[in-house]
Design a protein that fits this description.
The chain is an alpha/beta fold. The protein contains six helices and seven strands; from the N terminus they run H-E-E-H-E-H-E-H-E-H-E-E-H. It has a single domain, classed as Rossmann fold, CATH 3.40.50. It has a seven-stranded mixed beta sheet, sandwiched between helices.
Length: 194
């Protein structure tokens, strides 16, 4: 039922989803760029439901999963992560992957809806440590298309891998395009090595 309603809402809003459906993979990380609006989250939920990506979770601090709203965050696909112990976040998330036969997370590497000049790199090191592929998801509000890439396995050559990421996202326009990481900088250097 969720699939049908979500697919109907996407069509009603004029959106389409295309590209590789990672549903057959057991473990992966989806990175979503650009992240420029609060609308990215509900759009992501609709896409997750329409494409039956039920194993895809978003990570959030564990305090959000306590009463009274903990059930809501779980229902939305949240997965609690304990950040209070100051242990290595990359190792902690890689351990979560190790404990599950099927597990996927979505991360917005910009880390905020505000303008940033470089991506956060935690997703990259989590993928390397957990030995899982990265799926790139492009939320293009300009064309109302969500596009999923084929899975790619990070090589450890950060410069080459981030060049590949930048190439995939270079034409995407967020809801607030001026806040997008590479908006207006298609040929400029920077923003990929952070």
């Amino acid at each position: 039922m969720r699939k049908r309603i979500s697919a109907w809402l996407l069509r009603l809003l004029g959106w389409r989803v295309e590209g590789f459906n990672p549903r057959q993979l057991d473990k992966y990380i989806i990175i979503v760029i650009p992240h420029t609006s609060n609308w990215d989250f509900p759009l992501g939920l609709l896409v997750r439901n329409a494409w039956e990506l039920n194993e895809v979770k978003f990570l959030a601090k564990d305090s959000l999963f306590k009463p009274p709203l903990g059930w809501l965050f779980r229902w939305l696909g949240g997965y609690p992560v304990d950040r209070s112990k100051r242990h290595n976040y990359v190792d902690a998330v890689a351990d979560i992957f190790d404990r599950h036969e099927r597990f996927a997370i979505t991360i917005a590497p910009e880390g905020t809806r505000s303008k940033v000049d470089r991506l956060r790199t935690g997703f990259y090191y989590i993928a390397l440590k957990a030995k899982v592929p990265i799926i790139m998801a492009k939320f293009d509000f300009g064309n109302k298309v969500v596009t999923f890439s084929e899975p790619f396995w990070p090589t450890g050559d950060k410069e080459a891998d981030f060049a590949r990421i930048r190439e995939f996202y270079k034409d995407a326009k967020g809801k607030n395009p001026e806040l997008g990481i590479w908006y207006g900088a298609h040929e400029e250097e920077g923003g990929t090595n952070g």
